[in-house]
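Notes from the pairing session

We agreed to fold both candidates in a single pass and log them together. This is the raw record for the first candidate, unedited. Please don't reformat it; downstream parsing expects exactly this layout.

Candidate A
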Amino acid sequence: MMGEIINIRLLTTPSSTSLLGVPGKINVFLREYNQQMKQENYPMVAKTLHGFEEICAQELRQLGASKVELGIRSVRFEGDLGFMYKANLNLRTAIKIVKPIAQFTLKNQDDLSRKMDEIDWSQYIEVDQSFAIDTTLNSEIFTHSLFVSQKAKDAIVDQFRKKTGRRPDVDLQFPDLRLNIHIQQNQCTVSLDSSGKSLHQRGYRTATNIAPINEVLAAGILLLSGWKGQTPFLDPMCGSGTFLVEAAMIACNIPANINRKEFAFEKWADFDEVLWEKIIEVSLKRTREYPFKLVGYDKAPSAVHKAIDNVANAHLSEFIEVRQANFFTSEKEVSGPLHLVFNPPYGERLDIEMESFYKSIGDTLKKGYPQTDAWMITSNLEALKHVGLRPTAKIKLFNSHLESRLVHYPMYSGSKRTKFQIHEGQSTDL
């Protein structure tokens, strides 16, 4: 199976097969290559979701980042060109990886144009190429992100017109260069977006159910739950199968974005294809086998078909089984520990009777799922009161724009009651 995944990816990188199967030689090659190219570390920022800052930081440290610092929905770090490639390929809880190129203070709106003109844009884009600008802000100087993007665009275009008499185009869908502008009060940071489309767009999910869970959110929930692939896994309301695929990728240590077709850095002037191929090679050599089965249930046949298709797209059918079943009439099928993670309907997605539905969740766990580590995310905070189980952890997250809670119900063998333990660093407030 791992060989199948590797071969599929390497269809696009034919020259990288020479060192496969020799991880020691690969690592030596990378060290020597970096020394030869004299690559230096530079600051970068990994953007993430609320509540995932520490997890994202842990991922970065494990990959080898230096000077890791937590921010708000972001993590600052340093690394070289190869590490930027590696972060985009491997990080499960990052939405984007951006590379700051300028930071300055704004006194008024006109300052933005002047500061943008001080940047030599010919270093990053040619006149016959295209660009796009994304802006996020929290400022009294500017109140509309689109206005900021427009002023910044005008400054870049005017600079090229003065120097060449021509201008680069704006392409919001498929730009050669994507810029990120972040304004916090009077502080402005201009960055190159190395990712392009959000990293939650993994490339395997072509079929979706009603209100599917974001891939980055799913991966973060799994990591928060302590999932490492050491037990069987069940998602009893699997929808389009996102939890199943992300859980399998964690269990097998498959790079999160191995199925993506492209990253923004592949269009940069300094893109190093040889180095990129070696990063892919090294990352794929770290995959591992998963000795159990990941299982998904859903009542709806349409959801089952969609999940099966997405699992196949991710090349994980060997590890994942999806079938039509009603969780409320089910019982645990494996002996020993089971890791259970799911995202039940919260009332807006499905016409359900909230109180009885969530009560049934608690009853089913108590009666049929001993020795189960059950984790559930819901945006229906009122519904949690009807589960009938006291969670040992409640973690505040956001599912899209909806404030949610990730709750933990450890079900112990031989008892319908749960022990109560508070996980260090986790809130217990609803």
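Candidate B (folded immediately after A)
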Amino acid sequence: MRQPATLPALALSLLLAAVAADATSPATGSAPILTIPDEVERQVIAWRRDIHQHPELGFQEHRTAALVADHLRSLGLDEVETGVGETGVVGILRGGRPGPVVALRADMDGLPIREQTGLPFASTATATWEGREVPVMHACGHDAHVAILMGVATTLAAMREELPGTVMFIFQPAEEGSERGGGAEAMLRDGLFGKEKPDAIFGLHVGPLPTGTLHYRTGPAAASADSFRIEMRGEGTHGAMPWGGTDSLSAAAQAVLGIQSIISRRVDITEVPAIVSVGSFHAGNRHNVVPAEASLSGTIRTFDPAVRERIHRLVAQVADGAAASYGVTAKTEIDTGYPVLVNDPQLGAAMRPTLERVAGGQLHEAARATGAEDFAFYAEQVPGLFLVLGAVPPEKPVFNHSPNFTIDEDALRVGVQALGQLAVDFLNRP
């Protein structure tokens, strides 16, 4: 059953008054820990379950966007803009006093995965993806991210008169990417930072870590993500007479071995880690035919722009060398994807006391993530800080993108408190 999109009017007015009374203080550099009323937590859980049951793929998040926009309008935000980056939503809350601009971001899209959690609100949704019908699931926790940020908007709207500055709520499509790229780029192309350029931006992601813990690291925190495709072209021939042609399959196989050894033999991984993985290999149709064409593709993950550039060159060099040794030709294409996500060191240091207070002794330094996050595009333009929120109990360590992925909903309150407190304390900095 679909949960209500907004709180009833009377309940909301009482709630906002309670939040405002408990959460504000003079602008002395930081506010006390925000109080998240039980009613807000219950609503955040309801939103999360509703969004989980109705997932949508990248740039198809029409229902989710409408839910978000309706809620932001019900809070009386100064601006609510839809259709940013196709399906993104942006809300602007201007405080009662002048001050800086802080942005908070949540991603909205699901994945083409068939859910196997058995939850009473499990997804049975399908959608069209790359020309075919696929199942859809929130297998990465974006349902939680959206619900958390809606809860933050509720909390901060209650104290708008005491806020010295402006809060930008960014609900982004297609973080998981699509054939048209990712949602962060799309929103930026649509002028996301045109009217209001933030002085800082914060975001978080749920992960399979102890519930309620917070994790982050400054500097390079998540890898860039590029893909490559290599096509070998030779001359096909009978498998019983291989000398009659040129063997694209063997050239491609040699290229696989060479590419897989780039990191172990050509990159100093004691300085900066990197990954190159071949993920697909296609050649031929029959056992007795040496194919004229072969292709392979893979991914490149790095934490340093110079290393990223070098690996791009080495992949092409290896492919060309393998092709030449078999008398075939190689065509290498590298698609540049998400950049390295860099958490601003100064912003991270400044906000660490906030995170320590919110986490209550459960703040940890995160390991580098070899996964990618298009929050990196925002962090290239303004100082950014991206956190990981532990949301899976130790007895259920299911990784993101699994058909069995789910979260411990007790983490949602911590998520609302963390993002809300970061915004308030940033705006109140002396």
